[in-house]
Amino acid sequence: MRRRSLAAALLCTWLAPATSASKWVPVREVSLEVRAGSPLDFSSLLPNASIDADSRLVAGPDGRLAFARAPEQPVRMLCASLAWSPASGGFPDHDGAERYARQLAMHGYNIARLHFVDASLMFGRQKDFDFDPETLDRIHYLLAALKRNGIYWIIDGLSSPRGAYGGHDDRWDANGDLKLRLHFDEDAVAHWSKLQEKFLASVNPYTGTATIRDDALALVILANENGIEFDSVVHERPERPAYDEAVAKPFNRWLSARYGSTETLARAWGDLGADERVETATVRLPANRYADGPRMRDLQAFFVETERASAARMSEVLRGLGYRGLISTYNNWPTVQTALSRRDLGAVTMNTYHDWVGGYSPGSALTQVSSLADGANYMRMIAAARWLGKPFIVSEYDHLFWNRYRYEAGLTMPAYAALQGWDVLCRHGHGPIALAYGEPFPHKKAMLPYAIALDPVARAGETLGALVFRRGDVATSAITIPFAVRGEEDLGEDMQAREPERLTDLALVGRIGLLPADRFDGETGITQPRDRDAGTILAALRDEHMLAAENRTDIASGFYESDTGQVLLDRRAGQLRVSTPATEAAAFSSLREPIDLGLMRIGRADGNGLVALSAIDPEGKLSESRRLLLILATDAQNTGMIFRDSEEKVIEDFGALPVRIRKGYVDLELSRTAARWSVSPVGLDGTVYPPVDSGSGRVAFRLSNDTPYGPTTYFLVEM
């Protein structure tokens, strides 16, 4: 009996339930369509203009995205990730597309990325290029609906490694070798080219124009995440060699052209095997990608040359089909090698994640750590992959569910994207919004990683992002700190080498990015080799009066203030603060003392979270606006979530709807007075409910997200 009791106790510990049910309140909304004219309807605040030749997106003279009619004026694009699959409902019918596109515009989106279109077109198809006609029709209609709502398009030339080959039922998995073969195989390039011709170059019956010639198509990503090194990591298995055999012959040809003889190569490497000869093309690929050495260094140099040639060749295909817009590829891995491969691209695209999750199966795990604790490293990594003078597009980012600190993403990425002067910001998911809870699809039955539409915390972050980033509440830095790049000589013997974190800290103060060494000048940049430190650069910026003497950045204490004075990160306290004329906000993992943001003071909170206050009147100033949108985001989980551990790192069961929001409160005070003020809950669909607090004179109140009308993340302050 005692053994049974012990076993039961151990089982209960292993299958730890989510935090006590009394702390979680179920969401009441079913419809998630934002009501027209509500505080969550940004269509007037952030209007989308019609798309035509004059408003085509181009790279302006400073390398920023701009409209063709005004290339000198940069524009910021908030991106909706449309990564649909049958499991998440697929592409909507015509009525659904109209409603969805209109809702995207109301939420503040002005560009959308269509991801895995090839997989959707070929789902269930047995013959090559035998697109499903209904899916093709739905995609064409959606593109037209997006365009009518002033929403531009980003489209992957290839997302699935299965391409348009028939007879595969694993199109959303990491199987297939098409991405690798694009670099080495003529048949693969021909297949990719035909895919572009049949989809992008075909006339859309709902626009009357071929997609590739449409003014709404702003960017084509040749192939998603198609770097050779990354592809080899994705396909790495214990029983397989580190690199595919398809790489061996091209690498040997490259070595022969570079070194000419075995003897010359042996002198360069020093570790050439007795059975390896350049003349017989028998030089082996590295057996271990993590073993540094000259063999690995040369393999990286080979990858750079190969990838640049591949991108140029595929770009020529698009130009031959009549495409005039921007082209990018190699949109992940911020290594020195991949940066060199991106050097000639017209635009740079990058993907990045904090607390990445690899799947949905029981046993999937994350770390449950804050992104502020490491100084928003996932943002800094890609900041250092940007090439200055080119448009920079974040094609994917997320701080993933079920990490309890993911409220940070809604402030961290929009604020620093704005500070850096990035052009497009795209939080990745099946879709950024849903029209309702309870849709009958496997990936819509509960919140999941990469399913931000159902997550009130992520949705609150996207709402804030529309204001902080797209509206421009946070200003772009006035200083630029270039990282000099010479070329192949910058490659080391470590394939993972990237810009040092001790230097990417500078992205928390001003703009950073890569710059060819022959264009590099001045004392306020990072030279090669990377032997300068961030403190020296900051001192030089102060000496040249580019950074104010009163700037409070103190690297040793983990305290970083932007040159604009609007963004402040305190790593030790786990706090990010934003103070601008239009928005004040704070994300905090702890609140040991009040946070004074200027107009808003956060006096006390009963847990970690995000608090933001934004003006939503046309005046756009907190000091003058009569209507303020207040956001309080804590955490959210599914009903019945089960974890394998008490720290909630390892999932056992995601549970089901309804979504539950963690109760929380904050004490707030505004440095404004009013003859009459009120605070009203706003539902997730934009419905404004009767006030829960009101007064006259000094504006001060305790805000709870557990309202009489159900839990919410939004409130309307009127005065």
- Highest CATH level, the class of the largest domain: Alpha Beta
- Class of secondary structure makeup: alpha+beta
Total count of helical runs of at least 4 residues: 16
Please tell me what the overall shape is: globular
Strand coverage percent? 15-25%
Tell me the count of domains.
2
How would you portray this structure in words?
Residues 1-20 form the signal peptide. Keywords: Hydrolase, Plasmid, Signal. InterPro entries: GH. By secondary structure, the chain is of the alpha+beta class. The protein has 2 domains: 30-67 and 75-243 and 285-358 and 371-481, Alpha-Beta Barrel (TIM Barrel); 581-718. Helices cover 24% and strands 23% of the residues. A hairpin with a 3-residue loop joins β19 and β20 (583-588). α2 (94-106) packs parallel to α4 (133-148) and α13 packs parallel to α14. The longest helix is centred in the middle third of the chain and has 27 residues, at 294-320. It is globular and about 85 Å long. The protein starts with a helix and ends with a strand. The model is unreliable at 1-19 (pLDDT under 50).
Task: Give the secondary structure arrangement, pairings included.
Layout: H1 2-14, E1 16-17, E2 24-26, E3 57-59, E4 65-67, E5 77-82, H2 94-106, E6 111-114, H3 117-122, H4 133-148, E7 152-156, H5 178-181, H6 186-200, E8 203-204, E9 209-210, E10 217-221, H7 228-234, H8 248-259, H9 262-269, H10 294-320, E11 326-328, H11 336-341, E12 348-354, H12 377-383, E13 392-399, H13 409-420, E14 424-427, H14 456-470, E15 480-485, H15 501-504, E16 511-516, H16 534-543, E17 559-561, E18 567-570, E19 575-579, E20 583-588, E21 595-596, E22 600-605, E23 609-615, E24 627-633, E25 636-639, E26 642-643, E27 651-653, E28 656-662, E29 665-682, E30 693-704, E31 706-707, E32 710-711, E33 714-718
Helix pairs in contact: 2-4, 13-14
